Amino acid sequence: MGEIDCARCAGAACTTEDIETTPQLCPRRVTAGAIAEAEEIRSADAEVKRWAEVAADVEQTGYRKWPRVQELIEFCQRLDIEKIGIAFCVGLREETQALVKILESHGFSVETVVCTVNGGCNPVGQALALNELQTQLNVIMGLCIGHDILFQQFSEAPVTTLVVKDRVTCHNPIGPIINRYWRGTLVKD
């Protein structure tokens, strides 16, 4: 167990004003400086505040109505994002083509860079290419684990993930976590 453990908190510590009623492993106690700094950034940085407000609005408006693709469209429209980059795995070319068609039909300019841009998996190259094209938001479409991290590290534009690669579960990595049969095989005794 780590120093903080929100996943196992049974209470509503996040919603109370009284920090004394929060568990000992609450981030509000352990990392109080970071929590305070986050609030300061959110209230002082107009861009952060705007993105947070748009995210909350999209979540509230589309809650249980919109799939993630629709949320992406709504989010970008509300932030006046015009140019979207897509870093995709060569194995998801067809799905990426479908996404491009959807995004372009909503008036977005879309730039795409395949993972094999330099003859082999090259997430840094994908990021640098999209940086040069000055995309405003980049979308990950099924990059391998590790490659997605490198892409995010080198992308100048903010990054969201639309598809997480999972070859076993048809790109549904939550499957083994919510399915008790899979979950049982993954817990190490």
Q: Compute the gyration radius: what is it?
A: 19 Å
Could you tell me the strand content as a percent range?
5-15%
Domain unit count: 3
- Output the strand order for the largest sheet: 2-1-3-4
Helix coverage percent of residues? 40-55%
Elements, N to C (H/E):
HHHHEHEHEHEHH
Q: Helix tally? A: 9
State the distance separating the first and last CA atoms. Answer: 15 Å
Q: Would you count the extended β strands for me?
A: 4
State mean pLDDT (0 to 100 scale): 91
Cα shape? globular
Largest beta-sheet details: 4 strands, parallel
Structural class: alpha/beta
Mind explaining what this structure looks like?
α5 (93-105) links the parallel β1 and β2 (109-114). This protein has 3 domains: 6-44, no CATH class; 45-80, no CATH class; 82-189, Response regulator (Rossmann fold). It is globular. It is an alpha/beta fold and 189 residues long. It contains 9 helices and 4 strands. The two termini are 15 Å apart.
What's this, in brief?
This protein is of the alpha/beta class and 189 residues long.
